[in-house]
């Protein structure tokens, strides 16, 4: 197939982010719809281009992880990099905001469990098989489709493009960062920093609020991440959280990186075990139910996008 900018038909903007804009596009020859992320690059070195392609390519060619968004190819055009990937229905940030703020409902524990396991499986696959640390775990990088599949996107990009990308937002606006990423000038990125970001993400999805929301400015939020006790979820309450779930999320939010678990340890927690599907076995009714709910909400959110903006 021809695969360049003129072989794609623009169908409109899906969303804007830190590094650029995501468009819905149709591959004219095959009729395939895809999400295309246009990243404005100042002067990407050939070496960096190659690395970007290699990282994504290995991921696609292996195709062993069902929880990673498929990569179709990258196009370099006029100093921009266009990443063509699987089109999903919606990202978790939009989905949960619609559920909590518009429907005045909440995401139930089964949904949180299915999201947690899907994301951990994707992250540990990237680390173990590809030697990739994600570095940007947050609700908008966790995508859902109409069948309730949960997939991770935007891996590796931060690391490769850090120096050559024209950032569209201020660097300070990243309050999913772990304390050790803020407090120290540390070039060795530990997987456990992603575990923290996952903890913040799950906390946010479980409660409907970002845990550092009460601090108004990004600077105050970042100071709070470093100086305050970590966010802590209580068992029970009006949301009736299980002990399994709060233990799991709270352990991800261990402030001291050395004491925070890695994926390998998280996989022993009862909350993980409850929602993981061992190879060869069928999903439990709880997982099936979570898929149904998330699939429904994904389509509903996609069909009512305006209400959640702002
Ligand atoms: P961010 O992740 O910081 O929000 P991005 O530029 O990565 O910014 O993405 C912008 C928005 O586009 C995301 O918030 C998400 O809602 C949407 N999006 C990204 N990738 C896809 C995809 N593959 N399928 C559907 N929507 C996507
Ligand atoms: Mg993103």
UniProtKB/TrEMBL annotation:
It is an enzyme of class 2 (transferase). ATP binds at residue 37. Its main location: cytoplasm. One of its GO terms (cellular component) is cytoplasm. Residues 8-272 form the Protein kinase domain. It is found in: Cytoplasm. GO terms for biological process: response to stress. Pfam families: Pkinase. Its EC number is 2.7.12.2. Coiled coil: none annotated. GO terms for molecular function: ATP binding; JUN kinase kinase activity; protein serine/threonine kinase activity. Keywords: ATP-binding, Cytoplasm, Kinase, Nucleotide-binding, Serine/threonine-protein kinase, Transferase. SMART domains: S_TKc. Transmembrane segments: none annotated. It catalyses: L-seryl-[protein] + ATP = O-phospho-L-seryl-[protein] + ADP + H(+); L-threonyl-[protein] + ATP = O-phospho-L-threonyl-[protein] + ADP + H(+); L-tyrosyl-[protein] + ATP = O-phospho-L-tyrosyl-[protein] + ADP + H(+). Belongs to the protein kinase superfamily. STE Ser/Thr protein kinase family. MAP kinase kinase subfamily. This is mitogen-activated protein kinase kinase.
């Amino acid at each position: 197939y021809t695969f360049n900018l003129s072989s794609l038909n623009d169908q409109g903007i899906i969303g804007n982010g830190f590094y650029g804009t995501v468009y819905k596009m149709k591959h004219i020859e095959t009729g395939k719809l895809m999400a295309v992320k246009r990243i404005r690059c100042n002067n990407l070195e050939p070496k960096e281009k190659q690395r970007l392609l290699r990282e994504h390519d290995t991921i696609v060619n292996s195709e062993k992880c069902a929880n990673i968004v498929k990569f179709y190819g990258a196009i370099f055009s006029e100093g921009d990099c266009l990443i063509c990937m699987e089109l999903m229905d919606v990202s978790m940030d939009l989905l949960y905001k619609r559920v909590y703020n518009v429907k005045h409902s909440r995401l139930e524990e089964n949904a949180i469990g299915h999201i947690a396991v899907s994301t951990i499986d994707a992250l540990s696959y990237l680390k173990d098989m590809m030697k990739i640390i994600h570095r940007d775990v947050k609700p908008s990088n966790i995508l859902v489709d109409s069948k309730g599949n949960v997939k991770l996107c935007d891996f590796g990009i931060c690391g490769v493009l850090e120096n050559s990308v024209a950032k569209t937002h201020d660097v300070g606006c990243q309050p999913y960062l772990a304390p050790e990423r803020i407090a120290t000038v540390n070039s060795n990125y530990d997987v456990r920093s992603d575990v923290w970001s996952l903890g913040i993400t799950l906390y946010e999805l479980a409660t409907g609020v970002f845990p550092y929301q009460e601090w108004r400015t990004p600077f105050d939020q970042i100071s709070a991440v470093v100086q305050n006790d970590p966010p802590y979820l209580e068992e029970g309450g009006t949301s009736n959280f299980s002990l399994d779930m709060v233990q799991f999320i709270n352990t991800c939010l261990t402030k001291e990186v050395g004491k925070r678990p890695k994926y390998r340890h998280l996989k022993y927690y009862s909350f993980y075990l409850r929602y993981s599907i061992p190879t060869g076995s069928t999903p439990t009714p709880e997982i099936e139910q979570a898929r149904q709910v998330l699939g429904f909400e994904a389509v509903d959110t996609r069909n009512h996008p305006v209400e959640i903006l702002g």
